[in-house]
Structure formats: C-alpha cells, structure tokens
Amino acid sequence: MSAHAIDGKTLAEGLRASFKARVAALAARGRRPGLAVILVGEDPASQVYVRNKVAACEAVGLFSEKIVYPADVEPATVLARIADLNADPKIHGILVQLPLPRHFDEKAVLEAIAPEKDVDGFHAENVGALAQGNPRFIPCTPYGVMKMLEANGVDPAGKEAVVIGRSNIVGKPMALLLINAGATVTVCHSRTRELAAHTRRADILVAAVGKPRFVTAGMVKPGAVVIDVGINRLPPEEGGKLCGDVDFAGVREVASLITPVPGGVGPMTITMLLANTVEAAEREAGR
Ligand code: NDP
Are the C-beta atoms of residues 208 and 261 closer than 8 Å to each other? Predict the structure, then answer.
C-alpha cells in the first residue's frame, strides 16, 4: 500500500492565511511586525532563500528590510548594523542568512542578535530555553516538521523517533522537540554504526542528511512516518531537479505517511519564520 503524502504546501498556505489577521491587528495598533534579513556575499542559493523570505513577508503584510553586503565586508560593519536593528522598534525579527563567508565568526554574529529578536532560534539563550523545554523561538525547519506531524494527527508521545543528522539548524533542535513531545529519540550521524538497525526501529523517521535518496525502503519500518528534510540538487545528467534525502518512490511503499520534496518540509520553513516574527511582535506589543 502506498503511503499518504503530506502536502506541506497546502498546510503552509493555510497557516500563512491565518497570520494575515494577526498582522492586520498589530498594524492597526501601529505595531506592524518587521523582519530584517541580512545577506553577506553572492551565494546563489542564499540569494534565492532571502528573496523568498522577503516575498513571503510581503504576502502576509509584514514589513521587511533586506540588507546586503559584499562578501569581503568587515564583520564589525555587520555587527554594528545588528546592534542598530536590535534597537530599532520597527524590527521584531533579525535573521542572518547562513553560511557566512569564512572570515566571519558565525557564532559571534548569531550571539550579537538580541535573543528576543532571534526568530531563527539560533542564539545560545534560545537553544538553552528549547533544551529546557521552555522555548522562546523554535528553529524554523524542525518547528515546521512538528506542525506537519500535528496536522496529520501524529502524536510523538511514546513513539520511537530516529533523527538522521545532528546539525544545530535541523538535527539537534528536531531531536529536542521530539523529546519534549514525549518520543524516545535516537540521533544518528556520520559516525553511527549500523544505521539501518536504528532507522528500522523508528515509528517517526526524520532525514536531515544532505544526500540524495539516502534513506531506502529497506531502512524503514513498515507503517512508519517518514519526514524528508533534505533539499539536494541532482546533477544535470539526472535531470538537475530537486530531490530529498529519501528515496520517495521506494519508501512510499513501506511508510504510512511521507513528505515529498519539493512540496513537503520546504514550504513550512519560511512559514514558521513568519510565525516566529508575528509572535515576536505580539510579545513586544503585549509588554
Ligand atoms: P549538515 O550538513 O549540517 O548536517 C548533515 C548531517 O547528516 C550531519 O549531522 C552528518 O553527520 C549527517 N550525515 C552525513 N552523512 C551521513 C551518513 N552517511 N550517515 C549518517 N549521517 C550522516 O546539514 P543540515 O542539517 O543543515 O541540512 C540537512 C539537509 O536538510 C540538507 O539537504 C539541507 O539542504 C536540508 N535543509 C532543508 C531545509 C528545509 O527548509 N527543508 C532547511 C535546512 C536544511 P556529522 O555530524 O557526523 O557530520
């Protein structure tokens, strides 16, 4: 039997529509939510991500400010701008597009963002709050995954969850969210031995590896929920299309629910960035 494919695009559209009323209510009080996006350098993928984020803001009525620097900019210039944005009442969320050029200390830049404007949830204070089970901002991609599980009636409590990947952006916060939701969580990575022995135990399997079609049918427990976070560009000889970390066609025959790529987790990530920015503005307005 083929698994049901979770439609992230429709779920994202519904959530974005629901933000419009909240944004309008804030704007009516003179508190229109604002997001500042900082891009350093000319990385083509980062340019696309930033353009999409700014367009998504405009579509729901958020104020957005795109700040672009050349790749050789002095880190002190960017840090000074972040300090200005921290104090700017029009701005409720600040996002620095990663990766930064090599001469930057990425951690220092993320730590310069005021924690109450850190809508990516990467500041150590916000990571700590998430680890304690009391999050202020949840990193957008794993937050989107939790929303997809919720929307499809999947309660992680008591389930075996396996996350492949331990990055600060996806794997680690994903594992924390699943722990906080009551799952028994295993985190796998490049040093994991017998990977398939772990993945085959998973009721919920999250792949955040960055390798096309890495998870195959034989690695999946029958009836599992499979979430594919990966976004990989296939080489031109294979059509040059986007592809996830999961072999969708094969795994679909084993899983009960599965997210496609594109149209799965991807649309949810920007949606949760909007959610965090609206939330930040509501908190500020309530103070
Ligand atoms: P990273 O490269 O930072 O992390 C990849 C993880 O996969 C690492 O923890 C690595 O282990 C692990 N890994 C690599 N090879 C293996 C292997 N053979 N067996 C087991 N584990 C392995 O990537 P990100 O977390 O940033 O992103 C993961 C994927 O998700 C990428 O395709 C990215 O494009 C995509 N992505 C999608 C988003 C969306 O909106 N849908 C948002 C963010 C990312 P180790 O730590 O040991 O090196």
Answer: no
